UniProtKB/TrEMBL annotation:
It comes from Streptomyces blastmyceticus. It comes from the Bacteria. Residues 253-264 have a biased composition (Acidic residues). Residues 19-41, 238-264 are annotated as: Disordered. Residues 242-251 have a biased composition (Low complexity). Residues 26-41 have a biased composition (Basic and acidic residues). This is Lipoprotein.
Length: 264
């Protein structure tokens, strides 16, 4: 893991150039999905209640995306404890950079990634992928809170990591999000002490949220979250959501017996 001030525990910071989203500053939303229309509630509930073991089915494999080494990370990969900030409007961003999320997801799995091979486009790149399943509208609510925090804290904010280390960002830039999932956001946090920025991208698929974080000490100006990693991860989430939806549709309804003709 890079220095705490570089990625605040490699946590939540992704970046630009991850697909064809809307203009910077404008959240991208897909057309209303079954979840947005209130359909398939049973399917979404089934997804959000998955435990970590089942949720690991959507984890990217060690070499699943060519050119990247992907490894399973421990619970403390995003830092120990909950970050703190005196700026309440900025709290969702500080929370995102820690390991204790609010609202708390039903389950979470974490992977780290680093660039491998001779391709130097991402020299020094390292980051984290965190996939969480939520109950209710926890995933959508988390994105709403991040959007509001990025707007309120555009001029930067101060915080302390869960370990108590001081952290200061001089600016929070809202970037063009990837055109993936049901909705997505992307931000770049400019660090005061280090040249390396912290990048955060979050993509919601139903009640599951994939968050990508990255930094680069060797190429702070050109760093981005690799779009192929984002696409590969979101595709896995979409597959699991469709599977859960199909299972819920095939399950007998609660009112099936009441609908039967008693006359036979």
């Amino acid at each position: 893991m890079v220095a705490v001030s570089a990625v605040v525990a490699l946590g939540l910071v992704t970046g630009c150039g991850v697909g064809d989203g809307g203009a910077a500053g404008e959240p991208r939303r897909a057309s209303p999905s079954r979840a947005d229309r209130g359909e398939g509630k049973e399917a979404l509930d089934a997804v959000t209640m998955l435990g970590p073991d089942r949720l690991r089915r959507v984890e990217l494999g060690a070499h699943e995306v060519p050119g990247f080494q992907i490894e399973r990370a421990g619970e403390g990969a995003a830092g120990a404890g909950r970050p703190r900030t005196d700026s309440e409007p900025c709290r969702p961003l500080a929370d995102a950079l820690g390991s204790q999320l609010r609202p708390a997801p039903a389950a979470t799995v974490v992977r780290t990634f680093a660039k491998t091979g001779e391709d130097m486009d991402f020299e020094g790149l390292m980051g984290m992928i965190r996939v969480s399943a939520y109950e209710g509208d926890g995933a959508a609510g988390t994105l709403r809170a991040l959007r509001a925090a990025a707007t309120a804290c555009a001029d930067g904010f101060r915080m302390r990591t869960g370990e108590g280390e001081p952290q200061e960002f001089e600016a929070v830039r809202t970037l063009s999000p990837p055109s993936l999932g049901d909705e997505a956001v992307a931000f770049r946090l400019e660090n005061v002490a280090e040249r390396a920025p912290s990048l955060i991208t979050a993509v919601r698929s139903g009640n599951m949220l994939a968050m990508f974080f990255a930094t680069s000490l060797s190429d702070p100006d050109g760093v981005e979250i690799p779009p192929e990693l984002v696409r590969a991860q979101v595709e896995k989430l979409r597959g699991m959501a469709e599977e859960a939806s199909a299972q819920a549709s095939a399950a007998p309804g609660e009112d099936d017996d009441e609908d039967e003709d008693p006359s036979g």
